[in-house]
Amino acid sequence: MNTTYFITATGTDIGKTWLTAGLVVACRENGVPVRALKPLMSGYDPAHHAESDAGRIGAAATDIDRVSPWRFAAALSPDQAAAREGRRVDYTAVLDWCRAEIAASDADGGLLLIEGVGGPMVPLDARHTVRDWIAALHVPTLLVGGSYLGAMSHMLTALAALREVGVAPALAILNESAGSTVSLADTAASLAPHLGGVPLVVLRRDDAAGVAALAQRLLRRP
Questions:
Q1: What pTM was computed for the model?
Q2: Which sequence positions are flagged as catalytic?
Q3: I want to staple 34 with a disulfide (CB 3.0 to 4.6 A). Which of 19, 111, 170, 179 is the partner?
């Protein structure tokens, strides 16, 4: 049976792609089938595919359409990036595509990772945000936050926004922020009592063993 997770974060450049890429590497090193998808991607330049989110999670330039079918050049929210190109995000089409990918993965026994864009309240169109997308898919969600000053408020605000639409993240992932003035341990200690029962996983940026252990935990479902 396939295990699918949606990976979201408290904002942009928090660590979604770092975590997704790390889980892909950990699974492949242990012979576990894994696919990572980035359905919506802004700021994409085909000339620099390897540095894009899709490239970093393991998508070859030749299969980009299978990993990230909605790509926009401007590094903006999907609704704004699409408008720059005279396009719009077809929310229903995005949902249908994700659901088809989930259904197609049911027999492989590994992980299917769907990486979102920005945080839960990023607009996709005039009516929908990322949290609507998450809620509609009905799959376990990982909420990634950082350890920078202000990160705890951002994590708890994102958690509250998800809970408003009935989404209780399977795990909160506390990801070490580069150059933070706040220690990872102190952030975790202050944050944990406010998570309302959501388990907290703490990861340093160099913690490959921790990411590998998380991959095994996800396969067992938390």
A1: 0.95
A2: 38
A3: 111
